[in-house]
Amino acid sequence: MSYDFSESACRKDTNAEKYTLREKLFKTEDVQPVWVADMDINTPDFVIEAVKQRLNHPIFGYEDVPQSAFKAQIEWMKREHSIEFLLEDMLYSHSVVASMNVAIEAFSEIGDKIIVQTPVYPPFFHSVIEHDRELLKNPLKQNSDGKYVFDIEDLKSKIDKKTKLLLLCSPHNPVGRTWRREELEEILSVCLQHNIVVFSDEIHSDLVYKPNIHIPFASLNDKARDITITAIGAGKTFNMAGFAMSSVVITNKKLREQYLKIYKRVHFAQGSVLSHVAYESAYKNGKEWLEELKVHLQKNYNMLEAVCSRYPYMIKIVPIEATYLAWLDCRGMNLSDKALRNFFVKEAKLGLNAGLSFGREGSGFMRLNFALSCAKMSQVIDKLEYALEKKGKYS
Questions:
Q1: Alpha carbon 382 to chain centroid, angstroms
Q2: Keywords of this protein's UniProt record, alphabetized (predicted)?
Q3: Phi (first) and psi of residue 246, to 5 degrees
Q4: How confident is the model over 81-114, as pLDDT tens digits?
Q5: Secondary structure element (H or E) that encloses residue 103, with its range
Q6: What residue spans in the chain does CATH classification 3.90.1150.10 cover?
């Protein structure tokens, strides 16, 4: 079967936040939004059909997450990522960020230190600060080719007895890395030495481009499995974040009991009836769709890369291995972060995420979501090329 990504449904009359928040974020609605990490690509038909079938039953009361939904995810993880989880190790969560906040409370106390590796998805450091924990920043290093790597020596130099948790973003948002086994093993070695728990956000794990592969942190060895809280889900992969369902996997019984103390206090319950069937259908039926999607996304990325290559003195695209989020190095424009943001809004008519929102290390960068239909991506390319060409003439 061949899937069509040429067009996508109009979202302007829905409550899609990437559209409804344009005025608030960019001071105008005259921008094409390419910021928040959901796709302007239709959610797969097999997910929609599963939901339609459930709607035939007229009662929507409380329901547990069916074992079949978690089993579908377990089979997916085994087949796609060579890791096997047990049903009893899995918990429902409405979002990875919620799961992260529970982990912060469960495995640290007020005043403890928590490691984040910037630039990184903003809730990583916001969650730490909001829980009155101390942010221990271990910034990624950028090589001469633009690729980001861990700074292990910096990490070792900053850890002390109050360091309790590391928030790992794998694959990494926004820099698009899939961490290699040897890189993850270095992180593991440090965490084992200092008795640090790892919360591994692996929500983008299915969106990896060949020849790269995703290596779940818990799959490194039994010791890694014993210290890892794994957060995974179908929301990014199948553009179904609006169903608000993900899962948390904790194989260590002691850690799971610690986590459950906070989890039960918050009362996560079991989520939405419709989310359950959507989740199960995605994992049971999504392989072929996902493979075709990744080919499409790679084409979009290549188009973006081609535009940037024509203006290398102004903008460079960081090499991507995973996610559908391009990390644009705009430092060649010699603009302040405010002026850079204004350039994209006013000149390109595009609404991107400001790099600074991912930490101080994001200054001079912008994040662009290229998970778009062919039609919308063509518009983005035209707008960006026009703005860069215009700036080039007058610089």
A1: 26
A2: Lyase, Pyridoxal phosphate
A3: -145, -175
A4: 999 999 999 999 999 999 999 999 999 999 999 9
A5: helix 96-107
A6: 17-43+287-393
